[in-house]
């Protein structure tokens, strides 16, 4: 990539569904350490971790990670990465969530290429096909997209609805949103200047703020990653994933 990228990992200690999850041990290492190591291994740019908690900050410093203390009043992870990215000259800011320990360079590069080749879009992200019981899991965010792979809506509900009388109900896939974003610098500045939107508050999905304000998000379909860590149960699933991968 010739453009300069900065990777920022928001690592909020006060997660409502799993408080302290970023410091929870995953196969002997805190989750945030695994995320930081995965981000660093991509080689796509400098990596910073943004947190509101001194415990997380101190741990990151102890492993040599570049850590930034951000305001506890940040209303979303994107607000936190904007605060952490100020003063840099990066053309693109990549937001990898602090609960995605299995992120890969291939995934980020494909999403970056999709954004770079979609000049009408301001934000890039990715998805994978979704099957089974996770379709009804509200922690698994679903995407509806148009023919060009641009997001129409994100929801914790199964979307689009598969009507039993539709001739494509049994062949049309659901798609799972992978929790990262690539922002053009000016798009990130615009996003954080906007107030929280009604749908964002309703579904507790910050990307809906962008869609409600006319910003376009392009979505690359990629290979599945390991599980993200939203709940203690996810941590157990991630432990099993690591064991099976070995």
Attribute tags:
single chain; 246 residues; alpha/beta; Spore Coat Polysaccharide Biosynthesis Protein SpsA, Chain A; 2 domains; two-stranded antiparallel ribbon; 8 helices; 31% helix
Describe the structure.
The structure is a single chain. By secondary structure, this protein is an alpha/beta fold. The chain has two domains: 1-100, Spore Coat Polysaccharide Biosynthesis Protein SpsA, Chain A, CATH 3.90.550.10; 104-224, Spore Coat Polysaccharide Biosynthesis Protein SpsA, Chain A, CATH 3.90.550. It contains eight helices and eleven strands. It has helices at residues 31-42, 54-62, 77-85, 105-116, 185-193, 198-203, 207-212, 232-245; strands spanning 5-10, 25-26, 29-30, 46-51, 67-69, 92-96, 123-130, 142-145, 151-155, 174-184, 217-221. The protein has a seven-stranded mixed beta sheet, with helices on both faces. A two-stranded antiparallel sheet has the order 2-3. The longest helix has 14 residues, at 232-245. It is globular, with a radius of gyration of 17 Å. The two termini are 31 Å apart.
């Amino acid at each position: 990539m010739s453009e300069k990228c900065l990777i920022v990992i928001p690592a909020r200690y006060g997660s409502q569904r799993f408080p302290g999850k970023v410091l929870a041990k995953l196969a002997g290492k805190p989750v945030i350490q695994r995320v930081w190591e995965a981000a660093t291994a991509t080689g796509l740019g400098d990596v910073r971790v943004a947190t509101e908690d001194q415990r997380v900050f101190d741990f990151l410093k102890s492993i040599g990670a570049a850590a930034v203390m951000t305001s506890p009043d940040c209303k979303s992870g994107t607000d936190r990465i904007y605060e952490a990215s100020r003063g840099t000259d990066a053309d693109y800011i990549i937001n990898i969530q602090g609960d995605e320990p299995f992120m890969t360079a291939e995934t980020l590069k494909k999403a970056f290429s999709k954004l770079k080749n979609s000049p009408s879009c301001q934000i890039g992200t990715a998805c994978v096909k979704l099957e089974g019981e996770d379709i009804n899991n509200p922690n698994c965010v679903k995407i509806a997209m148009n023919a060009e792979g641009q997001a129409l809506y994100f929801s914790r509900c199964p979307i689009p609805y598969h009507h039993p009388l539709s001739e494509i109900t049994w062949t049309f896939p659901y798609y799972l949103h992978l929790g990262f974003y690539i922002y053009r610098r000016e798009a990130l500045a615009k996003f954080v200047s906007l107030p929280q939107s009604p749908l964002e508050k309703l579904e507790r999905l910050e990307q809906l703020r962008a869609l409600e304000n006319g910003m376009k998000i392009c979505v690359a379909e990629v290979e599945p990653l390991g599980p993200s860590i939203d709940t203690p149960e996810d941590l157990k699933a991630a432990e099993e994933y690591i064991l099976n991968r070995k």
